[in-house]
Design goal:
Length: 491
């Protein structure tokens, strides 16, 4: 059995092919304790089925006959009862629909070859790697852990790129061993490659990353395209770098990479990016590099709250594709393979988090706090980025709101607040809170702060819920602790 077949078998074992679900779900779902055939009324009346990033909730979000919320044919209350809370829930239909939206839009709008790479930093697991591989996408990784997850999940090595501004020798060696493309980010990368690549049987396939100097309106922490960034070579260094690499027989400079940020609602910066990258492409090819790939990164935003209005996936891809075609034709360049790296916009809307409400604290004339059984350890984005979310109660998702409440986490930090002044209906202890659009950067940025175990993740669809990541247990957190013998005598 070849390596490729073995990886494919791994992917099949991890995640059965259920692509039929996007068109015509079976009339008789498989028997399950959480199946409710009475569900059918959509939760979002203005849902955009072609561009899930523009919705607040997953595509399969429905109201059961009794008004309770369901996703993927599964009652959320049942999921919480079976798997506990906090609980991450991922909707398979939404994930597949978004993969196909990118894949198919690239085929429609770009006349050359193309490939969408899932930015797995958004949410990395064997199941997600298998799912996006099955939909024909590639993947970008930024660590040995993400790289191994992709490989073990069945992603072909030739569809993986390794990013990172401070790659270790071991990470680069792992990428070279498997034939993974390495994104050359800085001179340190180059020195490591000089030591590791010449001994390999084939040249190292490289994408050169540079900062294009393009600003866009997003959070300062997630801007990566402006010149003052830890990522990529300065554009003034590009010619010297490419001349140096032209004399390295161990290096195959097969493309260029630039990225301008994240959670972007603007399209114009991507037009500007195409022109900058086409100039760099012309330079690289003039120096003898094949440069078959042009990787424009990702960054398309999603709808977290009602007033968010991101572009559609179709509009984003069309803008990028048309800009690249125009820029290349103006410079008489053969079209490269167009790569992009959706992360948040691919997985965020497919995910939600379930919490149990616990204590309530009313401060007359100031604020009412509702505390839940999770917080900054399973969603650090509010305390890190001041991120906002939409939330409802699982048993009364359309009930009119009462006085605003602040939803606080259980961690020992005053800033551990998930939702400020949330318009929720009156809620009591034991109620189930649903927070939408948590599929990206929640699980992947989570921690064990206060020694709280990480939540489980279930993949839902067709009335079935499959556990794809187990819940940590408190004893798991002691696995790597060592107690020196001299301290055991302390009483």
């Amino acid at each position: 059995m070849t390596t490729r077949k073995r990886r494919g078998q791994i992917a099949a074992d991890i995640l059965p092919n259920r692509s039929r679900m996007l068109t015509s779900p079976p009339t008789q779902p498989a028997a399950s304790a959480i199946t409710d055939p009475a569900a059918g009324r959509p939760y979002e009346s203005s849902q955009d089925s072609a561009s899930p990033n523009r919705n607040l909730a997953p595509l399969t979000t429905r109201l059961a006959a009794d008004g309770q919320l369901m996703v993927g044919g599964c009652r959320l209350e049942e999921l919480a009862a079976i798997h506990g809370t906090p609980l991450y829930v991922l909707d398979e239909i939404t994930l597949r629909a978004t993969c196909r939206a990118y894949r198919d839009a690239l085929k429609r709008h770009y006349p050359g070859p193309s490939l969408a790479l899932y930015a797995s930093k958004a949410n990395s697991s064997l199941a997600l790697a298998a799912l996006v591989a099955g939909e024909g996408l590639g993947l970008d990784a930024v660590s040995a852990g993400e790289l191994l997850t992709a490989l073990q999940g069945g992603m072909p090595a030739e569809r993986i790129v390794l990013h990172g501004n401070n790659k270790s020798e071991a990470e680069i060696a792992l990428a070279l061993e498997h034939g993974v493309t390495v994104v050359l980010d800085n001179w340190h990368d180059l020195e490591l490659l000089r030591r590791l690549a010449p001994d390999r049987p084939r040249p190292a396939r490289l994408l050169v990353r540079f900062t294009p100097g393009i600003e866009c309106h997003t959070h300062d922490y997630i801007r990566t395209g402006h010149l003052d960034s830890k990522f990529g070579f300065d554009p003034d260094q590009l010619e010297a770098l490419l001349r140096d690499l032209a004399g390295c027989p161990w290096a195959l400079v097969d493309g260029l990479h630039a990225h301008i940020g994240s959670q972007i609602f603007e399209l114009e910066p991507h037009r500007d990016l195409a022109a900058v990258m086409a100039d760099a492409l012309a330079l690289a090819r003039s120096l003898g590099h094949p440069c078959q790939d042009l990787n424009v990164g990702g960054g398309l935003g999603i709808r977290y709250i009602e007033t968010d209005d991101p572009p559609t996936i179709e509009a984003w891809v069309a803008t990028v594709a048309e800009a690249v075609v125009r820029a290349c034709r103006e410079r008489s360049l053969e079209l490269p393979r167009l790569l992009c790296e959706p992360g948040r916009s691919l997985v965020a809307t497919a995910g939600l988090t379930l919490y149990r409400i616990g204590s309530r604290k009313e401060i007359p004339g100031i604020r009412t706090y509702l505390s839940v059984d999770g917080g900054m350890s399973d969603n650090p984005r509010p305390i890190t980025y001041q991120s906002r979310y939409t939330a409802v109660l699982a048993d009364r998702p359309l009930a009119p709101p009462g006085p605003p409440v602040t939803v606080a986490g259980k961690h020992c930090e005053s800033g551990d607040v998930l939702l400020h002044d949330a318009p929720l209906p009156p809620a009591a202890s034991g109620g189930l809170l649903v927070v939408f659009a948590t599929g990206a950067y929640n699980a992947s940025m989570g921690s064990n702060y206060n020694r709280i175990p990480r939540p489980a993740t279930v993949l839902v669809g067709d009335g079935q819920a499959e556990l794809v990541q187990r819940r940590e247990q408190p004893e798991d957190l002691l696995r790597y602790d060592l107690l020196p013998a001299r301290l055991r005598s302390v009483t």
